[in-house]
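S.,

Sequence below, as promised.
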Amino acid sequence: MEAARTLLGDIAQYFVGPADPRDQLDALDRDRRDAEAEIRAVLDRLASKYDVPSDDVDDGMPLTANKAAEMWASRPRRPCRWPAPSPKAPRR
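The prediction came back faster than expected:
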């Protein structure tokens, strides 16, 4: 029975996300690092395809990190569960 509760808890956390704000920040940081790694891979692939020096990719990476930080910082702050629920359509 304990295994079933753990499995249900894992499934619930997958759909609802972490409830602890520290866990939310850790998840956001992991997602940010994953996104930067994916962006780097795409830029490296384009650089090799079009003979762009890797130094140019190195110079561009901080710009993408700053833009991502601006994107998250410009969002309005509100207490919410992770991920934020979508707004409901008004009733007629």
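DSSP finds three helices and no strands in the chain.

Coffee later?
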